[in-house]
Amino acid sequence: MTTPSPQSGSEIFAAIVPAPFGAVGIRIADGRLRELVYLPPHYHEKAPQDHLAEQAARQLERYFTEPDFRFDLPLAPAGTDFQRRVWAAIGAIPRGAVRTYGDLARELRSAPRAVGQACGANWFPLVVPCHRVTAAGGLGGFANQDDETGFHLGVKRWLLAHERVDGYR
Predict the structure, then answer these.
(1) Structural domain of 115
(2) Catalytic residue among 19, 89, 128, 130
(3) Is 130 a known active-site residue?
(4) pLDDT tens per residue, range 50-94
(5) Strands (DSSP E) along 40-130, which ranges?
(6) How high is the pLDDT of residue 141?
(7) Cα atoms in the Cβ-side hemisphere of radius 13 Å centred on 32
(8) What is the pTM of this model?
(9) Are residues 100 and 59 in the same domain?
(10) Looking at residue 112, which CATH number applies to its domain?
(11) Of 3, 110, 114, 162, which alpha carbon lies 20 to 30 A from 89's?
(12) Coil, helix or strand for 4?
């Protein structure tokens, strides 16, 4: 049996940027950002393959040093009408603040579970800061994951600490 290399799967990314929690894969399609993917630490940096991947990589690096940095990237169309409404509400949450799934559900006249599913379907994490949405009683899930000791919740904890949000370690 062949063991996949640590870089197995990296060919789908136009760049891979090191991050304090691992890495972020950047996917580009038709001159727009198609997806950002949180990657575990075994992924190595991959030089940007085009101008937009380079721009996205620079903006990610800047966010990792300046939590107030605001992304300015052309995003590919994604999501349902409801998901886009949730993502717009998430985009309005300022750095240093969180809102609960229930808060957003009331605002959008929906259900907390539907808001959580829209968060998990976010193609542009960090640009659309879904890590700023938590459960009423704690951290909640992240990227459709809820394993307390798992990689994705570790990323959410790091992002909230980076943005100076207390209480979610």
Answers:
(1) 81-162
(2) 130
(3) yes
(4) 999 999 999 999 999 999 999 999 999 999 999 999 999 999 999
(5) 99-100
(6) 75
(7) 9
(8) 0.90
(9) no
(10) 1.10.10.10
(11) 162
(12) coil
